[in-house]
Amino acid sequence: FVDGAPFLALGIQIDYLKTTKPADFEPYLPHVERLGCNTLFFAVRWLHAEPVEGAFDFAALDHALARCRELKLKMALLWFGTNQGGESRCAPEWVNADRAGFPRMRDAAGTELNGLCPSAPGTLAAERRAFERLLSHVAEADAADGTVILLQLENEPCYRMGHGSERRAVLDAWQERCFCADCTGRAEASGLSDFDFGVQA
Asked: Rounded to an integer, what distance in angstroms lies between the CA atom of residue 111 and that of residue 66?
């Protein structure tokens, strides 16, 4: 329901790699309208929202909001934070560069992976601050218009996404949880299965 009435979101998502600068996504907007869509799915990546710790930049989002209003489109936001398909590619460089403050996931053999451990308190606190800043910004920038109607948290929040030689998803290569020492201790103390602990984490 939007504004008290049923709303069927006929949406299109612009490639998340093209939502950083208005010049990258602006050429697609006329096509969104021409296709008869009423909703734009728009990604906000943490690495661009907070390129420097504590310094936030929502200029691209603000431009997209203004254009959606002009085109009479609603907007669904997609937050790409610490985890995208088991990797930390959408986290800021200042997070990825600090392995002590933001430890990586490990597989069952103890090998470090290119993803952030979800149980690390520093990681959760840092992303939470960024996400709350995004919510505050949207609440202020969109209070009068109600352009944003949906919000998706994270994208493909698995622990490890394996692919075969032909780039086909290999389900048995998906990892159920992080196997770092901290997560292993927590998992054993919880009495949960690896899968249930991973979902909870």
From this structure: 45
